[in-house]
Specification:
globular, two-stranded antiparallel ribbon, alpha/beta, about 30% helix, about 20% strand, 8-stranded parallel barrel
């Protein structure tokens, strides 16, 4: 399965461009979840959401739809990551399990100034639970400091079965090693002058990479931190159009879905 989506669904410039004019804001999730196959919820990064909200989001989206969640900044924006246990536990118990089968990976995003400390980062990964109330949990980390381009970082991720965000931004290192049973890409190089955010050639390239990941391979045209490739096996793939020219994100996601020959 290759899922393609956007970050959030509440963005004023999308009203009249992505969302039809006159669409009620209360109906925007319903609309967006039928145009793309996944959405990364950013609001969970800034503060806790209520269990009722997760239930509502589950109810408003179609069968097979999946949400990714941003882990709270209180867990990742700290000097010593080994002390994040309480923040992680509070988030896990905040009601995310109400998403049930629509709960996708949890993205733990780190500041671009956060450097790689093997012992402390390993301690953080050990705090990430594999399940909550019978619901399986998957984790991905978004590191943005060059020091993470390190084989020891990749070895830690593989040990804990945690994925790393694959980025295409000039501002952050690209680390495309496969370390878990899924791949999570956040594409941030959209061009506002292009109606679909990415040119057809670029969309075709990302579609090919996604297919290769899904089939168990690894693209040779992306940067890696280790020479050791993962075992070849089928994987679930998540690709999000994030930032860059955000106005183009929905169009970019829908264009990639079309390039893949899929339907939302």
């Amino acid at each position: 399965m290759i899922r393609v989506g956007i970050g959030g669904w509440t963005y004023e410039p999308w009203r009249g461009s992505f969302y039809p004019k006159g669409l009620r804001q209360a109906d925007e999730l319903n609309f967006a979840s039928r145009a793309v196959t996944s959405i990364e919820i950013n609001g969970t990064f800034y503060g806790s959401q209520k269990p009722e909200s997760f239930r509502k989001w589950h109810r408003e989206t179609p069968d097979g739809f999946v949400f990714a969640l941003k882990g709270p900044r209180f867990a990742t924006n700290r000097r010593e990551l080994s002390g994040a246990g309480e923040s992680i536990e509070r988030f896990i118990k905040s009601g995310i399990v109400e998403l049930g089968d629509k709960l996708g990976p949890i993205n733990w995003q780190f500041a671009k100034t956060k450097a790689f400390d093997p012992d402390d980062f390993g301690a953080f990964l050990a705090l990430l639970p594999k399940e909550a109330e019978g619901v399986a949990l998957r984790h991905v980390v978004e590191v943005r400091h060059e020091s993470f381009r390190n084989p020891d970082f990749i070895a830690l991720l593989k040990k804990h079965e945690v994925a790393n965000v694959v980025a295409d931004s000039e501002n952050f290192p690209q680390i495309a090693d496969v370390t878990a049973g899924f791949v999570y890409a956040r594409l941030q190089a959209a061009d506002e002058t292009i109606e679909t955010g990415y040119a057809p050639k670029a969309l075709a390239a990302w579609a090919e990479r996604a297919r290769l990941w899904e089939a168990g391979g690894e693209p040779d045209d992306l940067e890696r931190a280790s020479d050791k490739k993962a075992a070849k096996k089928k994987r679930e793939i998540f690709v999000y159009m994030i930032n860059g020219a955000k106005i183009r994100a929905p169009a970019a996601a829908m264009a990639l879905i079309e390039t893949l020959g899929q339907k939302a």
